[in-house]
Amino acid sequence: MLLLLGRGGGKRADARRAARAFTVDGADGARLHVEQEGADEGPLLVFTHGWGLSARMWAEARRDLGDRYGLVFWDLPGAGRSGRPPAGYSIEGFAGDLHAVVDSLPPHRPVVLVGHSIGGMTTLTLCARRPELLNRRVVAIALMNTTHTNPLTTMALAGLFTRLQPLVEAACRLEPLVSPVTWLMNWQAYLSGATHLAARLVGFGARPTREQLDRISRLPTKTSPAVQARGNLAMIQWSVTERLARIDVPALVFVGGRDLITKDHAGEHIAAALPQARLVRVADAGHMGPVERADVYDEQLSDFVGFVELLRSRAAADGRSFLSPEPALAPAPSAAADAEEASPAAPAAGTPRGA
Q1: What is the largest CA-CA distance in the chain?
Q2: CB of 144 within 8 A of CB of 120?
Q3: Distance of CA 185 to CAs 191, 227, 350, Å?
Q4: What confidence tens digit (pLDDT) does each residue in 293-305 have?
């Protein structure tokens, strides 16, 4: 099955760099697994993964970005090597955990928060709750294939799933009772290739490599179904829509043209509402765009962080903002032809809103 669904070739991303691993006490009592690697000076990029996955989803970012920036990866509570939170699961709790991770890092290094899916939701929640961090400790954010509200309302077939929401919530509450049986069935599906088929059809837009497909199929299989259900319930009950306008920090928002789990209009809404945002549309990316189209995502992210660094070096002297017109400061056009910045929701860097 894997031979049919995934492609061979491509740059391998499974070589692990030497990383410093440590544990942080989360806001809700979970012991959080954190890894730091990459450059010893300059900004730190803090990556928060999607739900059901772990920090191992970021293999391509480790490969592509570590020579230029410091990289920090952590596992959400109940995922990967992090413990479960005694107080339960909520996006607000995850935001508190992310804050704890940021506080554990060297204070002299500026931080860029990078979040995929629920990681983006967590990032938005932290920024909305703690605006005093913005443009000081947190100098920029990057949001990948994420939403601003109940994900049932921003996925494919949203009308159907929204009507079924009471049943979805009931199933999430019942799942912990049958979790061992579900977990056994999940492993059976993984071994038979059914999980790979579902991941290929729903999670990816372009054709992933076999290693990418197997990695993204294996990680949720290893996650407890009870943990998965409690996190799903937390997402359904969450929204940051009304607080987006208060998140005034440079932001890069990625959407995938083939994303079925988070439709592109969710990212478009975020980019339109944030005061300093640019939208990057990757036409052939699915929900796992940061994996399958890492060439585009990582290049855009690297250029964005470099641009923010340059602006910060000038800001004290001339007071320019992220969107101030300044051709000399605009990032160079990407070599990836299929990454196009949207307009008017998110003007290109160097173009003020309303221009």
Answers
A1: 62
A2: yes
A3: 10, 16, 52
A4: 999 999 999 999 9
CA–CA distance, 209 with 108 (Å, rounded to integer): 39
Q: Strand pairing of 339-341 and 138-144?
A: unpaired
Residue 18 per-residue DSSP state: P
Which among 100, 89, 92 has a CA at the least distance from the CA of 33?
100
Q: Give the helix/strand (H/E) hosting 216.
A: helix 210-222
Q: Could you tell me the CA-to-CA distances from 315 to 215, 251, 298, 305 in Å, in that order?
A: 42, 17, 25, 15
| Tokens encoding 183 | 């977990």
Q: What's the full length of the chain, in residues?
A: 355
Question: For the chain, what percent of residues have pLDDT higher than 90?
Answer: 81
Positions of E strands within the chain: 20-25, 31-38, 44-48, 70-74, 111-116, 138-144, 251-256, 277-282, 339-341
d(C-alpha 89, C-alpha 30), whole Å: 10
**Nearest Cα to Cα of residue 10 among 294, 219, 285, 282:** 294
For 204-259, how does the pLDDT look when each residue is reduced to its tens digit (9 = 90+)? 998 899 999 999 999 999 999 999 999 999 999 999 999 999 999 999 999 999 99
pLDDT (tens digit, 9 = 90+) per residue, 114-123?
Answer: 999 999 999 9
3-state secondary structure of 284: coil
Predicted pLDDT of residue 93: 97
Other CB atoms within 10 Å distance of the CB of residue 83: 16
Classify residue 108 as exposed, middle or buried by CB count within 10 Å of its CB (0-12, 13-18, 19+). Answer: exposed
What torsion, rounded to 10 degrees, do the Cα atoms 241, 242, 244, 248 define? -170
3-state helix, strand, coil in the chain (%, to 5): 45, 15, 40
CA distance 308 to 314: 10
**Interval 89-121: pLDDT, tens:** 999 999 999 999 999 999 999 999 999 999 999
* C-alpha separations of 45 from 39, 111, 176, 318 in Å: 10, 6, 34, 26
